[in-house]
Amino acid sequence: MKISLRKIKAIVGMKFQTLLSNTSVMLSPILALGFVFAIKNIMPDLDVNEEGISFSTNAFVLSFGIVFNIAIAGISMSSGPLAEEKEKNTLRVLMTSSVNGLEYLIGTLLPPLFILILVNILMIPVSGSSFGEVQFGSYLLMTTVASLISLIIGYIIGILTKNQTQTSLYTLPITLLLTSVPAIKHFQEDLSAILDYTYTGVLTNFANSIYSETGYQWNLTDISVLFGWLIVSFVIFVYAYKKNGLDS
């Protein structure tokens, strides 16, 4: 399948305009930064690691921020606009024009991915951390992969639902479940092992580990979970895309 950079550039420009003009969608990443700033200034600075209790305010605040941004903002920035395009039939027009599925996917992924990455980077100083503390290379790679997963999940929801109202109803429980992971892992340790197999659980473990004495160490489990979620979500997306006739 050949791709045209000119068409991708046109879709990227259109998507940026759509996202930036959609107040409800753009509110999520702004709220993520705002909540992190507020929590950081309200919560006392704690770093407890004794008698089986492990808690760091910086780790909790950072994990909450990146999970909120990636899960809520990521899914809403892809599912909402796609559902709107379906309702207005602009998606069908694009698919029946000379734009192919791969060009559409790349063009629609890049704008929200750029916004998510930018907010994830801003999350570091807002949370009171430094770029050196968070092992920036690993942080950028992990949050970018997780952002891609959320965006693809959002596209799956947008494709499978009939309208924006139904999209919102399906999105809410999924985002609540994903964003509750940091709190559950801190306060319900018996569920921690299960949550390690979610991509937001990997993000939480990463945030907790970077403030430990040894720092974060890449391991097979985290890599498998991240790329497993990415591959599975992409396969489901392709299936939903073809099943709904968007490749014709």
Write a short abstract of this structure.
This protein has 248 residues and is mainly alpha-helical. Helix content is 75%, strand content 3%. Residues 50-54 have low confidence and may be disordered.
The largest pleated sheet is described as:
2 strands, antiparallel
Shape, per Cα inertia axes: globular
Strand fraction equals: under 5%
Ranges where pLDDT stays below 50 over 5 or more residues in a row are 50-54
| Separation, N- and C-terminal Cα atoms | 14 Å
List SSEs in N-to-C order.
Answer: HHEEHHHHHHHHH
* Gyration radius from CA atoms, angstroms: 19 Å
Considering DSSP H and I runs of 4 or more, what fraction of the residues is helical?
over 70%
Average residue pLDDT: 84
The total count of strands amounts to 2
Number of helices in the DSSP assignment = 11
Spatially, the strands of the biggest sheet line up as: 1-2
Structural class given helices, strands, pairing? mainly alpha
How would you describe this structure to a colleague?
With 248 residues, the chain is mostly helical. It has helices spanning 5-21, 23-42, 57-87, 90-95, 101-126, 136-160, 164-179, 181-187, 192-195, 199-209, 220-243, and strands at 47-50, 53-56. A two-stranded antiparallel sheet has the order 1-2.
